[in-house]
Specification:
With 275 residues, this protein is of the alpha/beta class. It contains nine helices and seven strands; from the N terminus they run E-H-E-H-E-H-E-H-E-H-E-H-E-H-H-H. The chain has one domain: Rossmann fold. 48% of the residues lie in helices and 13% in strands. Helix 1 packs across helix 6, helix 3 packs parallel to helix 4 and helix 4 runs parallel beside helix 5.
Length: 275
């Protein structure tokens, strides 16, 4: 893949906190012009002031009209969008049979439909110019299933499959599509969980740097961290009779089930359910 340099106009969904916020900060540091969208208006205002961005728009990624408005405002203020980062996502935890239907629906609407809607709308703008880059935030949980995250894993598997198919479809169009696949990252999404044994969580700044590098040197995907990504890639070749006890040893079969501090996680879950 060729390296691209120079300032880019970048729009980021879910940009008011977590990975989205840190990605915006890293891209601004590198000289890119950044717009952020988020459904949390209070946090959005705070993030915009802190980052010094000119474009900060209330955004509901489950509504295509809201996404289109975000892109319109971005292009009207900063110019044609070079990069769209579909970053917004939610991650409830728990036993599948106990998951409320509205929680299931919310994950599908935000994590899958939000990405699909954003991708389609960006393609409609980028294809006539024969240039642009769409980066969809997936997860290593979209490659390696994790108990306690069945719906979340399903949505991230879908993001990877959708993006890979679209990437091949538009490979000659001048528009690039990529996925960022983080390991579990120290943001609100993992509040109240302890992580797997012998495997550290990533910091959001690491994901931000990887995303920035992906813009500057496009690739189909990037896994973060390198250690976690290598493990996930290797596990695809490990027989089930070995993979299951290994998961038990590392604690991945209980980290999002029996080892969750529900009190520490409550604020995040309440915010997600209101958004």
């Amino acid at each position: 893949m060729k390296t691209t340099t120079g300032s880019r106009v970048v729009a980021i969904t879910g940009g008011a906190r977590g990975i989205g916020y840190h990605t915006a900060r890293e891209l601004i540091r590198r000289g890119h012009r950044v717009a952020i969208g988020d459904i949390d208006e209070v946090q959005l205002k705070s993030a915009a002031e802190d980052l010094g961005v000119e474009v900060a728009v209330r955004l509901d990624v489950t509504d295509p009209e809201s996404i289109a408005s975000f892109l319109d405002v971005t292009e009207g203020t900063l110019g044609a969008i070079d990069v769209l980062i579909n970053n917004a996502g939610v991650m409830p935890t728990g036993h599948t049979h106990e998951e409320a239907d509205d929680v299931t629906r919310r994950q599908v609407e935000i994590n899958i439909l939000g990405v699909i809607f954003g991708t389609k709308l960006a393609l409609q703008r980028m294809l006539p110019r024969r240039q642009g880059h769409i980066i969809n935030t997936a997860s290593l949980a979209g490659e390696l299933p994790v108990p306690g995250l069945a719906t979340y894993c399903g949505t991230k598997f879908a993001v990877i499959g959708f993006t890979e198919a679209a990437r091949l479809e538009y490979r000659k169009s001048g528009v690039t599509l990529s996925t960022v696949r983080p390991t579990f990252t120290n943001t609100e999404l993992v509040a109240g969980t302890s992580g797997a044994k012998a495997m550290r969580n990533a910091e959001p700044e690491e994901i931000a740097r990887a995303t920035a590098a992906l813009i500057e040197r496009p690739q189909p995907f990037v896994r973060v961290t390198r250690v976690a990504g290598s493990m996930v890639a290797a596990m695809k070749f490990v027989p089930e009779r070995l993979a299951t006890p290994l998961g038990a040893f590392l604690g991945t079969d209980t980290v999002f089930l029996d080892r969750v501090d529900h009190a520490a996680r409550q604020a995040y879950l309440e915010r997600v359910s209101r958004s």
